Write a sequence for this structure.
């Protein structure tokens, strides 16, 4: 039984960071759930854009048509695809804890923060490409299926490219929030439930709160703050600006990731 | 070489491992024994830096495991067989681990060959039997061709063919001069391959010894002797401080004196010996004797088998 090959020196190869990234990308691409969640997300973005283009304009009054932001409408699918991105970001970490793979991972790379950074970079890079591309595809689909000219816009109009790109950025940051929560909670169900509670529960609770709360706290809750980045026109005055809102949203993700980075080195696996 | 000094791990106030010190010498197979729940797996996780010790330290080849940047070249470990994402193919599972240490596809194919899984390299590991998963775990441990191997209960749950395969593999690893730490709750499993033994119970070190040393000590050892001058012999032996018990078949069981000494005493007094032989307790008996107090869940003693029926 030939088990012996020349034993390489442990420190002789290229940068360790590149190897860890390659390893994390290998894990990311080699499970089917990655392909299926991303495909589903693209499908949601494009299909809902088409449906919105066909069905929404005819149901809007003249006043509503003049106050509706067409870009936001073309990105209606983001409300669904965000679930796919959130789940994918979370599972990148929690599936390793769920299967016990994390022990093999940490035994191969004891520098745990490097592993976590590798996961975040691999996810963010992929999600950025798929997120932005599918938002542009959604916009193109929306324009192609749009009946009538009242909601017509041009890619050259002010804020349009920013808003479409912003749809992709929102999905990336949302996934990173999930990845951070996954690192903190180490359980798929716990982290996914927390992620969506964080997104949807504040909005629901705020509708039950006094008006003053809605205008003071409302703009800062995660989804409301984050979604401002994909509004091109007809910005609602109570809400934060596009980049300010996105900045606040990113802070939630940054907080979760930071806590994850702190905890990952101090816990037993 | 693996060296633990005062290794202690508390989980919520309860000690899983307590003040454990041992050395696993290079180039030998060390058996790591203890009843279920004795702290073997905890100790192995501490060695690999997966759990942080509450007190004490453990090093591999002089450095803490977590100080290695590409540890797969130093230490290969099999902890749990099923610790893999079920949706990944065997090849990809190994490739993902390998690439984190800069190990390429060719070596992945090699280790799949070594463990005999090349036929199912593209199959998803979720469908693997326990035996196949165990082989996959061993393949992962061999990726970096490390000099040190840590195998936690590698034969647990395997069918006879799998058990035989693991034994052969451990022997061949040992023949290569590798350091192997092999845990089991069964003495019969480690006795086949191990040179040295670390026995723990309830997280504490019970014995740290070689197999031969373990056999030499212990209450189960005696010299069996038969003589027509039985009473005279008994008297002479007792006078020399040995304890002698007469058996129903007219033989004597002598402890506290070696066969050499018994022979000399007989010659000095001109006594005839018809039989003189040393009897050692089996490793299994010694092991049960040592760990008897440290088993968490006892069956009533009349149900406990003491022979080597495993």
């Amino acid at each position: 039984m030939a088990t012996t090959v020349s034993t390489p020196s442990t420190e002789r190869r290229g940068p360790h960071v590149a190897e860890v990234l390659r390893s994390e990308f290998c894990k990311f691409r080699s499970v089917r759930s990655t392909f299926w969640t991303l495909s589903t997300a693209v499908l949601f973005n494009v299909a809902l854009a088409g449906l919105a283009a066909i069905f929404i304009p005819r149901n809007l009054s003249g006043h509503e048509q003049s106050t509706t932001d067409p870009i936001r409408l073309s990105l209606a699918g983001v409300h669904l695809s965000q679930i796919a991105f959130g789940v994918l970001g979370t599972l990148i970490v929690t599936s390793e804890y769920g299967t016990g793979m994390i022990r093999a991972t940490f035994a191969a790379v004891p520098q745990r923060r490097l592993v976590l950074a590798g996961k975040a970079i691999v996810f963010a890079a992929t999600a950025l490409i798929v997120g932005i591309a599918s938002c542009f595809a959604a916009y193109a689909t929306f324009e192609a299926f749009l009946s009538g000219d009242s909601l017509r816009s041009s890619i050259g109009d002010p804020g349009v490219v920013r808003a479409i790109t912003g749809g992709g950025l929102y999905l990336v940051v949302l996934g990173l929030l999930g990845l951070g929560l996954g690192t903190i909670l180490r359980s798929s169900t716990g982290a996914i439930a927390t992620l969506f509670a964080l997104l949807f529960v504040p909005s629901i609770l705020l509708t039950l709160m006094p008006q003053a709360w809605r205008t003071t706290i409302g703009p800062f809750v995660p989804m409301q703050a984050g979604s401002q980045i994909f509004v091109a026109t007809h910005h609602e005055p109570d809400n934060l600006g596009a980049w300010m809102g996105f900045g606040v949203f990113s802070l939630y993700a940054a907080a979760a990731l930071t806590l994850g980075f702190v905890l990952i080195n101090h816990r037993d696996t | 070489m693996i060296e633990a000094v005062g290794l202690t791990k508390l989980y919520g106030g309860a000690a899983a491992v307590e003040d454990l010190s041992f050395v696993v010498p290079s180039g030998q197979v060390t058996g790591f024994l203890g009843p279920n729940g004795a702290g073997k797996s905890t100790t192995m996780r501490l060695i690999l830096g997966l759990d942080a010790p509450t007190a004490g330290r453990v090093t591999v080849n002089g450095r803490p495991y977590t100080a290695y940047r590409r540890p797969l070249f130093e230490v290969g470990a099999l902890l749990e067989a099923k610790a893999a994402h079920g949706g990944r193919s065997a090849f990809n599972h190994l490739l993902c681990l390998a690439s984190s240490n800069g190990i390429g596809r060719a070596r992945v194919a090699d280790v799949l060959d070594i463990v005999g899984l090349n036929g199912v390299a593209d199959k998803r590991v979720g469908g693997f039997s326990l035996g196949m998963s165990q082989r996959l775990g061993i393949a992962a441990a061999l990726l970096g061709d490390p000099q040190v191997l840590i195998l936690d209960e590698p034969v647990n749950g395997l069918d006879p063919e799998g058990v035989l395969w693991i034994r052969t593999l451990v022997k061949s690893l040992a023949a290569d001069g590798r350091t192997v730490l092999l845990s089991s709750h069964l003495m019969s499993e480690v006795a086949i391959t191990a040179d040295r033994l670390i026995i723990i119970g309830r997280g504490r070190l019970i014995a740290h010894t070689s197999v031969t040393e373990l056999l030499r000590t212990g209450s189960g050892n005696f010299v069996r002797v038969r003589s027509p001058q039985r009473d005279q012999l008994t008297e002479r032996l007792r006078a020399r401080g040995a304890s002698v018990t007469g058996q129903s078949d007219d033989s004597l069981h002598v402890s506290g004196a070696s066969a050499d000494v018994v022979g000399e005493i007989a010659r000095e007094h001109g006594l005839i010996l018809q039989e003189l032989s040393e009897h050692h307790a089996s490793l299994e008996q010694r092991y049960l004797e040592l760990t008897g107090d440290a088993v968490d869940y006892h069956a009533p003693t009349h149900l406990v088998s003491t022979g080597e029926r495993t």
